Amino acid sequence: MNATDFIVARHDLQQCRFIKTRLPDPSALAEGALLVKVARFAFTANNITYATLGDQLKYWQLFPAPEGFGNVPVWGFGEVVVSSHPAVAPGERLFGYFPMSSHLVIDATDVTKRGLRDAAPHRQGVAPVYNAYARVTGNKDFEGLDGDHQALLRPLFMLSFLVDDFLREHQFFGARRVILSSASSKTAFGLAHLLHSSTEPIHVIGLTSAGNAEFVRSLGYYHETVLYDDVESLPKDVTVAFVDMAGNSGLRVRLHHHFRDAMKYSGQIGLTHRSFSPDEPELPGARPAWFFAPDQIRKRAKEWGPGGIDQRFGAAWSAFAPELPQRLTVIESRGPAAVKQVYQDTLRGRIPPAQGHILSIEP
Fold it and tell me: Are 105 and 34 in contact (CB under 8 A)?
């Protein structure tokens, strides 16, 4: 039995192709193993960040590929086809991190009523969240909103939630305003929703392109929408915290030189922009720093105790989720050609912000 995998060249993401990989005989699965059909998965600009940082943050090791290539991790739903674990039945649905493939073998361990973990050796050494799978059937966390919106937004909203928590924990580093680049991106407008709707809101400015400005304004989450060409029009004497969703080096340099010492925080979240430069000069204002979500998860898990993160995130998600159907049009595509097209369009920034793409490699 073969799986179909979509792989990309690690150092030239425009190169991509499909390959066949051999799966173990379903009748000879190792004890505890699950053969899972990857039913549907979301693909967003955040997945381009996973690919861009594949070596640095070990994303490439999660789903092995031939030398020089990688399988981009995606969030989605899988169906257990064959199970050799006594507590997991065929037909059960799982939600978690999958390869862009038709099938995946999971070495199931730590199985509970709510979820399980993949104990495959090559998947260790990364943040635990990337090896965890939720058991969807009967799970109240997946009630009240269709699975497509869950796959598209729930993992990204967790990142939004953690950035919001980080900024509030540090009292916004003394800033009076928060500036978000790529304001139309799903992670950005999730964060803007949290910042805007809190009992202690802060002034939120969304930076975007002219083509996406109407969508950003329609969200109602930003107090101001500013085009990239106009960032120098912002008052430079008001302290700001900058959350960079795209990794546009030129924009970051402009903002730091404009605000100088008024730039109290400069955090880099995503890396989807083609003009990113790893060798930026020293900039005035706060020193740019990466925000790494697993660090904040580990910190809060220790401080909030068992279930603390889930409880707080669940409340935030419950307030955000009902708004998604009116913000986002889900487009479902199936088959290798469709997967490749959406990947290339996302890589080149051609996906309209009001669209969310759900894919399946199988026709």
Answer: yes
